[in-house]
Amino acid sequence: MTTLLIVLLLIAGAYFVAVLEAWISTGRFQLSAPLLAGIALLGRESNLPRKPDRIFFEVGPVLLLLSGLLAATVIPLTPNLIIADLATGALFINAALVYVLVALLMAGWGPDGAYAMVGGWRFLGQLIAYAMLIVMPITAVAMRAESLLSTQIVISQASLWNIVYQPLGFILFFIASMALAFLPPFDMMIAKGELAGGVEAEYTGIRLAVFRLGRLVLIITLAAATVVFYLGGWQGPWLPPWAWSAIKILAVAATMLLAGRYMPRIREAHLLSWCWILGIPLALINILIVGILVLEFP
């Protein structure tokens, strides 16, 4: 029952993200827009490229969806609303999200098309840049909580949220999450202006619908992880825990969508350079600062 409820909440959150994304892109707020777009995709013929790697081509979109769902299994929405409260839950989220890379490489390689392949390899280069900016802030969060249990991480923020305790870690994790969800300006593997859709260029019909649903679920999952790690999870006054989780997750997802519209797009080479030269040292500094705070002010 808990699993079904969380899956339904993820789908509802994904629908909200789709509505908001369409609003930002077109300037028109239509609650029915994602539903109509989904029906249109399902009504189209699902074409196959001329010489695909059929296994990679079929599995890529499904794996993208599953990676987001798998990461969500260890994210608590309330003290009791969680599928699996693993002892290594914080690291499990990172491990599950690694399969986003595998999914996009499959989606890029499977169609045997130039644009799709370039998009897949771009995402690989992007992962090299921001992978450590996912793991290292999580390490600092776990240091304060003295646990990798996601529920314990939320409880450790009862007196002070981590966004205040370690703001540098929050900024790094937030930017890396946007890149992992390939949101603008980190959407270089889709790049409709230059790659005609990139990794999703050869997908049509139900396959494209699954691919886009997977991306929406991924955005909600990363927003939920940000809330658990930095915004106190379900904690808040007056409202019930589930309401606070919902409000915070939707607010973070909206911020991720809006922030990308005001950030300039950069080349993947520059992204790699900035992450290695600036991002990783800042993440190490964040770990050092949190370590000192934990020792001096336990």
3D architecture notes:
The protein has 298 residues and is mostly helical. It has one domain. The protein is 71% helix and 0% strand. Helix 1 packs across helix 11, helix 1 runs parallel beside helix 12 and helix 11 crosses helix 12. The longest helix is centred in the last third of the chain and has 29 residues. It starts with a helix and ends with a helix. The relative contact order is 0.16.
Topology:
Blueprint: H1 2-26, H2 33-43, H3 54-72, H4 89-109, H5 114-130, H6 132-145, H7 150-155, H8 162-165, H9 167-180, H10 192-195, H11 205-230, H12 241-261, H13 268-296
Helix pairs in contact: 1-11, 1-12, 2-11, 3-4, 3-11, 4-5, 5-13, 6-9, 6-13, 9-11, 11-12
Give a short account of the largest sheet: none
Low-confidence stretches: none
Q: Based on Cα principal axes, name the global outline.
A: globular
Number of strands: 0
First CA to last CA: what distance?
38 Å
> If you average the pLDDT, what whole number results?
84
Question: What count of domains describes the coordinates?
Answer: 1
Helix content: over 70%
